[in-house]
Amino acid sequence: MARWVRPALCALRLWGPAVAGIPASKLVEAHGSFASATCTVCRRPFPGKDVWAEVMVDRIPRCPVCTGIVKPDIVFFGETLPQRFLLHVVDFPMADVLLILGTSLEVEPFASLSEAVRSSVPRLLINRDLVGPFAWRPRSRDVVQLGDMVHSVERLVELLGWTEELQDLMRQEAEKLNGRDR
Ligand SMILES: [Zn+2]
User: Fold this and answer.
1) What does 137-173 look like in DSSP terms, one character per residue?
2) What pLDDT is attached to residue 162?
């Protein structure tokens, strides 16, 4: 859904759950992902789909080498954030614009990330409600679009002249999903 920002923002990186059409290098899944897994004992990596298959039949995934429990590389509450998260925090002071969509901005470190861009950098919040620093410490260049998020994003895409590209992308992704169901 987010390929529409790419033409304008070549250094774009997305911080959030996997989004259709976004290459892995441009995405930081701060809460980890089910795409990969690691043995909690010997730290061997495994493909996420192997773990998933075990879990779906109510079995605890075990490492074939050391029999340790294999855990998906998702971040549970209280665990440290993935390395990749820390690696890309440097994006923020260099950003020219910050788009924030669909969040409560209540959970750290995300709440603070919204303040990690320079004060001259425009921040766009597309959200149902006014949240976080946008409510209690607004900046003069903040732009806020509240209400239905799908409509807001469609409007932004329209203003950018990317409606056709977005529709193509959504069609492609829908076809992929339908193919997977069969
Ligand atoms: Zn192991």
Assistant:
1) S--TT-EEEES-HHHHHHHHHHHHT-HHHHHHHHHHH
2) 92
